[in-house]
Amino acid sequence: MRRAHAGAAATLTVRAHGRETWGFKGRTLSRRAGEGRWLRVVATPLDKPRGITWDGTARADTLLPRSVPRPRLHDVFEWTDTTHLYRAELSEHVPRPALQAGGPVLTRELDLPDTWWADLRDALAVTATVPTHRQAVRQQWIDRHFSRLLGIPTVPVTSWTTGHGDLHFGNLLGPPLVIIDWEGFGRMPSGFDAGLLHAYSLTMPATADRIRAAIPDVFGTQEGHVGELVALAQLLQVSERGGHPELTPHLARRAEQLSGVPVPLPPALAL
Asked: What sections of the protein cross the membrane (predicted)?
């Protein structure tokens, strides 16, 4: 990946420098590049499907209005070698750290101004209205996994919307608000984005309370509860695979609060 990143920088005539930022399982590598730019390179084996995250950033950049605060995308190109397909994306660099570092699970309470929360609510509302054929969450996934992960029958989603798809404080900057990493942009149940942000924040009760207060149209409606349950189910699936063990009991409690049914956690996860 380092060789691919260096080659992309050379092609784009920028100089990569600064700290390396690695993505999930080494699939992506990002660094500052040139003046005020950020170069991200992603790779996938040639014999594997590219998946929705492959071009999510570019599609979001094209479809979303500029009122949704995010880094501008300046250039994109793809290439292959004998085993992998690569994609380079040169974006605006925002010289501020994310509100959470080291992973998506919130590890400290956040004290953000009311204006930041209002901007987040507005950005999610605007994003929700953007038409796209990209499907980030599918009814088929819900039908396959709800009973096993949540202990309840599958729920037919009646309200779909457009969203970020990976909303947590590691992808949020501010104040002022900037939302980064739009790879998962697409259609999803209403309330999924806010539910995911809330789920990742359950370890910090005051911030979780603030999320619920800031976005009442999600947490106070039946459609929002369904979207939140889908987000909780996705993270419980991550827990099954060994991810975020510190978050698992919080996810289970929140899901039971919404559904009234205890989550059927495996014994090892219920400890």
From this structure: none
- Give the domain range for residue 238: 114-270
Summarize pLDDT for 104-137 with one digit per residue, the tens. 999 999 999 999 999 999 999 999 999 999 999 9
What tokens does 172 get? 């949020």
State how many domains the chain has: 2
pTM of structure: 0.95
**Residues whose CB falls within 8 Å of the CB of residue 224, separated by 6 or more in sequence, listed in order:** 190, 191, 194, 195, 217, 218
Residue 105 lies in a domain: no
Question: Which of 234, 265, 261 shows the shortest CA–CA distance to 152?
Answer: 261
Residue 40: count other Cβ atoms within 10 Å of its Cβ.
Answer: 23
Helix/strand/coil for 161 = strand
CA atoms within 13 A on the CB side of 140: 2
The answer to whether residue 106 sits within a structural domain is no
Contact assessment for residue 224 and residue 159, using Cβ atoms and an 8 Å cutoff: no
CA atoms within 13 A on the CB side of 18: 18
